[in-house]
Write a structure and sequence with these properties.
The protein has a six-stranded mixed beta sheet. The protein has helices at residues 4-12, 22-37, 85-92, 114-118, 137-147, 156-165, 181-193, 211-228, 239-245, 263-268, 284-293, 315-327, 342-349, 360-367, 374-379, 394-397; strands at residues 43-52, 59-69, 74-78, 100-105, 108-109, 121-124, 199-203, 231-235, 248-253, 256-262, 273-280, 295-301, 306-313, 331-338. It is of the alpha/beta class and 408 residues long. Bound molecules: adenosine-5'-triphosphate (ATP). The site of adenosine-5'-triphosphate (ATP) has 17 residues, from strand 2 and helix 3.
Length: 408
């Protein structure tokens, strides 16, 4: 089996084995210049479909998925487990060959011209090995710039700036293996951005970070997008991160896009909102009646007489609730409106099946990067040492169709 990272590097032409003759390079450069001049979106996905297996075993992972991302835009790609996010991202990155559809980066078809298309793209994928732990932080940045074909010396100032922004400057000369998990996560991000790419895919970028580091990273991602026109596709189970960082979210469910809108619009389109209510005089039978008739949660006895609860209700329902409370002789002590958040919108749009990338064990594994997982040792391109970039799931890598690599 060939590792996914090998495939990606090959798609990018990093191994120098994709026919990169001078003539080809010239053509690719021309393609890129022409495409950029057209000023199209940074990323365009059109009609992407992928079914794994066949017959009774067939699983349609992605069905007719289309979306675009403009330069400098930050979008969140969300969905419950199995929604098709990974398949979509891997198809965009050339790690999976879709059955149908087209992907263009800065107007360049990724399957027709992988070298030119992927020249300015990088990814921090879940569970992937993004850093060499034996190298220092700065050496990692230089290394990843070099394997993208950039001159690390020419990018030295840029690297300094990245380290500064991510609060890593004082660790620049520390081997990555000596850093905390949160810092390693920041180094991974810095490494992805070290080659001065214009489009980056970030899976759980704040995973393992303490609150302060997470806030720094959110702020810097937004700044990088604003100031440098960096285009980001972010996947995270943490809706606060998505809300803080993303201009827009694309929500997938069962292989299809169920929402593609700004966070603001998604929340505005939400009819149901919530209230937090405190009342006096509610006994158990009254509370049972309210619970039966309304969507009451978080019920809490404050003392013998006072009760607080939350209720999901649009305004009409809220008035019915107040009528019911009055009929029960309850005294309304306090009412507070609870605004719907992205989490609420997500649950409603995806049928409440819980969000994807669900943190937990799967991701914890991603933190144990040193010590050579399967992919790194197979890879070879990155020195066969301890880490290599790649996709998240070796088992999927064995899928014949996925890695056929028969790109045109
Ligand atoms: N190589 C494969 N072979 C068979 N089925 C697959 C393969 N890869 C993905 N699938 C299936 O395709 C569907 C979409 O999976 P995908 O990993 O893209 O979803 P996801 O949204 O990334 O989920 P998660 O959040 O769990 O990673 C799932 O039903 C999954 O089991």
């Amino acid at each position: 089996m060939e590792s996914e990272s090998t495939e990606l590097e090959r798609a990018r032409g990093i191994d120098g084995d994709d026919g990169g003759s001078d003539a080809t390079l010239e053509t690719e450069a021309t393609i890129e210049t022409a495409a950029r001049e057209r000023n199209g979106p940074a990323l365009a996905v059109e009609g992407l479909s992928k079914t794994f297996g066949s017959g009774d075993e067939a699983v349609t992972a992605v069905e007719d998925v289309s979306f675009t991302v403009e330069s400098g835009e930050v979008i969140g790609l969300l969905g419950p487990n199995g929604a098709g996010k990974t398949t979509t991202i891997k198809s965009i990155l050339g790690l999976i060959l879709p059955d149908e559809g087209a992907v263009r980066i800065h107007g360049i078809d990724v399957y027709d011209h992988p070298r030119a298309a992927y020249d300015h793209v990088d990814a921090m994928l879940e569970g992937a090995r993004n850093d060499y732990w034996r190298l220092t932080v700065r050496e990692n940045l230089r290394y990843f710039a070099a394997i993208r074909g950039r001159d690390p010396d020419a990018l030295a100032d840029r690297h300094d700036e990245l380290l500064e922004r991510l609060d890593l400057s004082d660790r620049a000369d520390t081997p990555v293996r000596e850093l905390s998990r949160g810092m390693k996560q920041k180094v991974s991000l810095a490494s992805v951005l070290a080659g001065d790419v214009s489009v980056a895919f970030l899976d759980e970028p704040t995973l393992g970070l303490d609150v302060e580091s997470s806030l720094t990273l959110r702020r810097e991602l937004v700044r990088l997008a604003d100031e440098r026109g960096l285009t980001l596709v972010v996947s995270s189970h943490d809706m606060d991160v998505i809300e803080a960082v993303c201009d827009r979210v694309v929500i997938m469910n069962e292989g299809r896009i169920v929402a593609d809108d700004t966070v603001e619009n998604l929340l505005a389109g939400f009819e149901t909102q919530g209230y937090r209510i405190a009342v006096r005089g509610a006994d158990e039978p009254i509370l049972a009646d309210l619970r039966e008739r309304f969507d009451v949660t978080d019920l809490e006895r404050l003392d013998d007489d006072r009760t607080r609860f939350a209720v999901a209700a649009d305004s009409a329902t809220f008035y019915r609730l107040t009528d019911a409370m009055e009929a029960h002789g309850l005294e309304l002590e306090a009412v507070e409106t609870v605004k719907p958040n992205l989490e609420d919108a997500f649950v409603e749009l995806t049928g409440g099946s819980g969000h994807g990338d669900g943190g937990g064990g799967e991701h914890d594994g991603g933190g144990e990067r040193d010590g050579g997982g399967g992919r790194g040792s197979e890879d070879g391109i990155l020195g066969g040492e301890e880490e290599a970039r790649g996709g998240k799931d070796e088992t999927r890598g064995s899928d014949g169709g996925t890695h056929g690599g028969e790109r045109r």
